[in-house]
Write a structure and sequence with these properties.
InterPro entries: Aminoglycoside_PTrfase, Kinase-like_dom_sf. The chain has 284 residues and is an alpha+beta fold. The protein folds into 2 domains: 2-96, Phosphorylase Kinase, domain 1 (2-Layer Sandwich), CATH 3.30.200; 102-280, Aminoglycoside 3'-phosphotransferase, Chain: A, domain 2. The chain contains 11 helices and 11 strands.
Length: 284
């Protein structure tokens, strides 16, 4: 597995050798759809995760920021990995290995206890700080329109409808909190029935409801009892009708266009379904 280190840049490889001398690669966890390399390594009986970004990566910096500023409510409970080393310039970070089975594709994906714990964890993250951003809505509208200008397979008639709707949306001040950005079973682990969290490459200040988007399109849609359990853990439902609709549309566009760009056809199909469902209940 040492060959997996060949995906790292010379600077990244040098830092890994400096930070984890004589460490051994045990497993390559890289997703394969992006240029990010994720390696499980061992040194002196301890296990680590090494994550290295490619030349155009901007996720490692976000992940480091999350570790340094927002993850204490989770790491203090053993529910997220501890940061060991990191360099934003080198696009490299090393964390301690967080044991557990990935929830996605496991029996835990249909367990209400998993969703209740996930709701509790998310509430801890969101409760840390609050800011008001007068420009957030405008920026997000521009991002969605930019996605529509890039290559994708969204039907032309749908694109026209999306553009027409987005340009009419209001842009009120938004209340932002620390968010995970990809809150779903793909980034949850279960170890001895306790849920943990990984992958903070999309962490940023956003409205609380943005962390509900993936779940609304997946588990909540499939089983309303999972949604009820999640809300029970979270403590409330922050999805304001109009702002939630705008977020659903934006998330749908981003999903369909990004998945097309990286060649993830199942995720792209989910994005197209999300667009159709959001437009079928169109309101802003």
């Amino acid at each position: 597995m040492t060959s997996a280190l060949g995906n790292l840049s010379p600077r990244q490889r040098a830092l890994v050798d400096q930070w984890l001398p004589s460490a051994t690669v045990e497993r390559d966890h890289s997703w394969g759809l992006t240029a990010t390399t994720v390696l499980e390594m061992t040194r002196a009986g301890s296990r680590f995760i090494v994550k290295a970004g490619g030349d155009d990566d901007h996720h490692i910096q976000r992940e480091l920021h999350a570790h340094l500023n927002w993850l204490r409510p989770w790491t203090s409970r053993g529910r997220a990995p501890d940061l060991v080393h990191g360099s934003a310039d080198a696009k490299l970070l090393i964390t301690r290995y967080l044991p557990g089975e990935l929830v996605l594709g496991s029996e835990h994906a249909e367990d209400r206890s998993t969703y209740r714990q996930a709701g509790e964890l998310l509430a801890l993250l969101h409760a840390q700080s609050v800011v008001t951003d007068a420009d957030y809505e405008r920026r997000e509208n521009e991002k969605s329109l930019a996605w529509l200008n890039q290559p994708h397979r969204i039907a032309a008639t749908t694109v026209a409808r999306l553009r027409a709707e987005i340009t009419t949306w209001p842009t009120p001040p938004a209340t932002l909190v620390p968010t995970h950005g990809d809150w779903q079973p793909r980034n949850w682990l279960v170890h001895h029935d306790v849920v943990g969290v990984i992958d903070f490459g999309r962490a940023a200040m956003r409205p609380t409801s943005t962390d509900f988007a993936r779940l609304a399109a997946q588990g909540f849609r499939r089983d309303p009892s999972l949604e009820a359990a999640f809300l029970d853990g979270y403590g409330t439902d922050p999805r304001d009708t109009n702002a939630w609709h705008r977020n659903r549309v934006r998330a749908a566009i981003g999903t369909a266009a990004w998945a097309y760009r990286v060649g993830d056809e199942p995720f792209e199909a989910q994005g197209h379904r999300m667009i159709a469902e959001a437009l079928s209940s169109s309101r802003a």
